[in-house]
Structures are given as C-alpha cells and as structure tokens.
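INTERNAL TRANSFER SHEET
From: sequence group
To: structure group
Subject: tRNA(Ile)-lysidine synthase

Please process the attached sequence and return the structure record in the designated field. Keep the field labels unchanged so the import script can parse them.
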Amino acid sequence: MTQAFDAAIAAFAPRLPLAVALSGGADSSALLLACARRFPGQVQALHVHHGLQAAGDDFERHCRALCDRLRVPLAVRHVDARPAPGQSPEDAARQARYRSLAALAHVDTGPAAIKSVAIAQHAEDQAETVLLALSRGAGVAGLAAMPMHWQRAGLDWHRPLLRVACAEVRAWLQAQGEGWVEDPTNQDQRYTRNRIRARLLPAWAETFPHFRDALARSAAHAAQADELLRELAQADLAAVGTPPRIDALRALSHARQANVLRHWLKTCHGTTPSAAQLAELQSQLAACTTRGHRIRIKVGQGLVVREGVLLGCYNSAVLPPGPAGAMPALRHDAAPPVGGSGRQSAGGAPLARGKGCKPE
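Return from structure group:
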C-alpha cells in the first residue's frame, strides 16, 4: 500500500486550478514543487501564518522565496490561532488553518477560481492519527483517520502523499536540491502527537516494519464501516423522524439507537455526545414508559429534553446571530413540555433550539 513519491504524484489527478497548502516544511515544499512541475501554470500556494511563534515569520519568508523561484503565485493569511479556554492548541491551529485555506481558495471566483486544495500529510501522519484515535478510545469514525479525498466548502480536498513514507518525501526533496524549514514545535514532547512520533513510531518500526501499511489498512476498514453506519443512521433517522419520536427510538436495537442518536445530534445540532452522555440518554429512553417521565440531559454542547412524544435538543452554538447580534431564545414563561422542564440552562438562561436537520 505504501507508495513511492513519484508514483503518488503520477496518480494525483485533481480538478484544476489547484492550490497547495504550503507551510514551508519538507512535505509541503515537496508537494508544491512536484505539482508545479506536473501542472504548470495551474498551481498556486496558500500559506497560513498562525501567529503562535516567532519562527512563523521564517516560515513565511521561506514560502515566498520558494514560490518566487518556482514562479508560483502565493497567497498568505495571518490569523490568531490561540486556543480558546478548554481547547487544545493543536485543534485551535487546525481549525484556523482549514478556515483560512478555504477563505484563500475562494478569493478568486472567476474562471481561474481554485477547484482543489492539496495538503501534504504523509503515511507517518496517518499512522500517528490512528494511534491517537486508539489512545482516546475512538469509534470507527475516529479510527478511519484522514481520508485521501473529501469535499467541503465547494472545494475538492486531497492528501496525495498519504501513502508515502516521510523519509521518501524528504529524500525526493533533497534530490531536487531544495531545502525546507523545520518547525521547532515538532520537537516539543508536551504535545501527544510529538511523543507518538518520537517514541512510539520508532518502536513500531522496529517491531512491525510494515506498520504504515497495517495501520492504513485498519483505517480503510474503519472508514468503510463508518460509511455503512452513516447510511444506516440516515435511513433510521428518516424512519424515526426529525425530531425523533421516542417510541420509534425505543423500538430500535440498542446499537442502532445509539447510532441514530449520534447521527441526529451531530448533523442536526452540531454536537457530539460523550460515551457516558450517550449511555445515560439511552438509559433514560429505556425507562421512558410513562407520560410523566422526564428527560433532561446535558449532551455535548447542549441539552436533550423530552417534549411530549418527541426528543428535543437545544444548542445555541449552531444558531446564527439575531438582528441585534443576540441568539434567538425561547420564552422563560413558556409552559414546560409534557414530562419535561422549562427550556432553560442550569443558570436560568434561555436555550435556543437548533434548526432542522440538514443532510450531510
């Protein structure tokens, strides 16, 4: 399954024009150089300055110099990727990066508008992602790790080097006489991914020399299982309704009930329950045999409550601001639903209800 660098580039057939996410590191520098040669005049580079370290200015200078030599247009966006309270630095930087790449790709809306974005993650990145998911007790969606191709924000996104070993990428770039910049934070073992890279991967390579292929196969199996579960959840949600009917949910097997609840909460309300929250919700559904049984459970970023014969979910995070910049809210004096409670948070503030479900 592992590919040579040249074979991966030869197999890469994106819709053009193409943008390459360029950090200045070896992987993205190699990908930009290879794509500029393969698709002359159809490639541009996108660089996101995260504003997190002084070395970020060096990354940008390297990117500008490389693009000047290759005569490839470069678009740069400066962002503040500092994490919010409770958010991991890696997650904050990743979210800021993908938002910025999409925004940069959409700057030109004419005939030269970007159709595809390429990202230079490689086989070790995929292995690290699988191991991270395992360490967190992830389900099949997490174990599926990173896809080679997906669509979002009207763009095709690609990881053409996902089956290429890191050493292969660097050897190819060195053979072209090109340099790169090293991110000093990659050596900081306070970050879990860096500890996996520095400690676990060498041990895996020594014990299981073909670990990249094995973990990639596991990720592919998980991705297929996740697709099947998603298709089943879509069919079940159509059957139980949106919002779901409690009696229809109770008629499902425990596993199908969990699957459709996760799908409903994620696709309709933008929230993901923890394993404990989902187990509690299912326990309450199992006990929900009378009109007077209340359900009011914190799930992800919102609340799931019983509303007569239905389940309701309230999550203000998925609603757009109102005319005055405030979130729309339900009335404090509204009568509680049958078997439920008033639509208020623990502090008494009104909660806004998520909009209808949108298909994935």
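Handover comment: Residues 51 and 80 are 5 Å apart (CA to CA). Strands lie at 18-21, 43-49, 74-78, 116-118, 149-152, 155-158, 296-299, 302-307, 310-314.
Transfer complete.
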